[in-house]
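Example record used in the benchmark description.
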Amino acid sequence: MVAAGAALADEVGPGNLTMGSLAQRLGVRAPSLYKHVAGQEDLNRRIAALALEEAAETVGGAVQGYAGRDALAAAARAFRTFVVEHPGRYAAALGLEPSGPDDPLAVGSRRLLAVFSAVLRGYEIADADVPHALRMLRSQFHGFATLQAAGGFRWSTDVDESFDWMITFMDQGLRRL
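Model output (structure tokens):
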């Protein structure tokens, strides 16, 4: 049921996902959904946790066996593809606060953060600078992917060329730290 909700969120956006629309998609009555989730907020949190786990799995698998620029590029491309293919579930994960360290949101966030931390180990970054580098990666990857998913790159320059340019720029910056 959560996977169906995530797919529907990808189609209509998380703000337009309702228990009623999910019930209709599944061919059941809305009250039957409450056997599986406590309500709309619970459904949204479960979709967000699923998105974080899927993103961690996708990006983690993409970077296996790579280091340095190759790992950075693999992570960036996998993350971008995930967000573009799953814009609703990714958006559902933004801004939610975990209720504690065992909350699936916290677990998924830590998994995804660990993947990006592993990418950074391919660079000689001082421990004190790692949080800054992680924020930079998230800002760049998130910004590019969400802009692309929203149709924000409408001019004639090839989007893939711009993306590769961004990866090169980030790689050179990380090497110079």
